[in-house]
Each structure stands twice: as structure tokens, then as C-alpha cells.
């Protein structure tokens, strides 16, 4: 997922932009590079760990719930950090065609770290969706 790390932060700690996986482990046990960045920590320093509990940042796996022309996308994201990101949903009716942004509600907390986004869409024989995530 591009754009989850600040370019200046990534360049400072990894020597370039687009080289670090935000979900990869940092030098601190159980912390990801993304959580280190959000907490202002050096991901290479095992003694400079964030002063907050570690959370599980990972690529979101999306579960779809379709009802008529409404879709709910359910996914896991650390609840303590959800407000620091922008989430969206994109759709296309055929692979190879452009995806379009759908107007959505959410993310709405379902329980714990489970969230859902809801969107109305134009029904077709085929529809493809994906969740977008970026820093605020």
C-alpha cells in the first residue's frame, strides 16, 4: 500500500521513498514500521520503542456483504489508529476498465478492530471492489 509512510520519514530512516513495507516488523518486538512512524520512533532502534502497546497492522483482508445494490466491506484495522487514516471504496464492472470512487459511509466500528464501509453501487453481472487506505 503506497502512501502509508510519510515520504520524508521513509527517506530519513530507509534512504529512499517506496522502499519500506509499512507492515513489516520494526526493530521493536511486535511493532510494525507503520506504528513506529505514527508514534515518532526510529524503526531501526530496538531501544527506542513506542511508549504505547503494539497493535497488529497488516494488509486489510476485506469481506464483502452484498444486499441488492448495497455493499458492506468489513475489514480489520487497529481501532486506536483508525482516525489517522482515510478509507475509501473503488469499483469497476470489468477488469481492465478504470475504477471509480464510490460515495461511502464509514468506517464504522462493528466490534473491537473490525470496521465496515457501506456503499451503494450500480449492479451489473460483474463488479470488482477494493478498499483504499491513506494517511490523513
CATH architect. name of the largest domain: Sandwich
**Total domain count:** 2
Helix content: 10-25%
Number of strands: 7
CATH domain class of the largest domain: Mainly Beta
Rg over alpha carbons: 17 Å
Shape: elongated
Reported for the largest beta sheet, the result is: 4 strands, antiparallel
CATH topological fold name of the largest domain: Immunoglobulin-like
pLDDT below 50 for ≥5 consecutive residues: which ranges?
A: none
Strand content: 25-35%
**How many DSSP H or I helices?**
2
Question: Structural class of the helix and strand makeup?
Answer: mainly beta
Q: In oligomeric terms, what are we looking at?
A: single chain
SSE pattern, N- to C-terminal: HHEEEEEEE
- Sheet with the most strands: spatial strand order: 1-2-6-5
Mean pLDDT: 92
Distance between the termini: 14 Å
What does this structure look like?
With 136 residues, the chain is mainly beta. It folds into 2 domains: 54 residues, no CATH class; 73 residues, Immunoglobulin-like (Sandwich). The protein is 11% helix and 34% strand. It is built from 2 helices and 7 strands, in the order ααβββββββ. The strands form 2 sheets. The chain has a 4-stranded antiparallel beta sheet, with no helix packed on it. The protein has a 3-stranded antiparallel beta sheet with strand order 4-3-7, with no helix packed on it. It is elongated.
Amino acid at each position: 500500500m503506497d502512501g502509508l509512510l510519510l515520504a520524508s520519514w521513509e527517506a530519513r530512516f530507509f534512504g529512499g521513498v517506496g522502499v519500506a513495507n509499512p507492515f513489516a516488523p520494526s526493530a521493536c518486538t511486535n511493532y510494525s514500521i507503520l506504528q513506529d512512524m505514527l508514534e515518532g520512533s526510529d524503526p531501526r532502534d530496538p531501544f527506542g520503542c513506542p511508549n504505547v502497546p503494539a497493535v497488529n497492522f497488516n494488509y486489510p483482508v476485506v469481506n464483502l456483504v452484498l444486499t441488492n445494490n448495497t455493499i458492506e466491506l468489513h475489514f480489520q484495522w487497529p481501532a486506536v489508529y483508525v482516525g489517522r487514516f482515510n478509507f475509501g471504496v473503488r469499483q469497476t464492472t470489468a477488469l481492465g476498465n478504470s475504477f471509480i470512487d464510490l460515495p461511502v459511509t464509514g468506517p464504522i466500528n462493528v466490534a473491537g478492530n473490525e470496521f465496515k464501509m457501506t456503499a451503494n453501487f450500480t449492479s451489473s453481472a460483474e463488479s470488482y471492489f477494493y478498499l483504499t487506505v491513506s494517511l490523513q
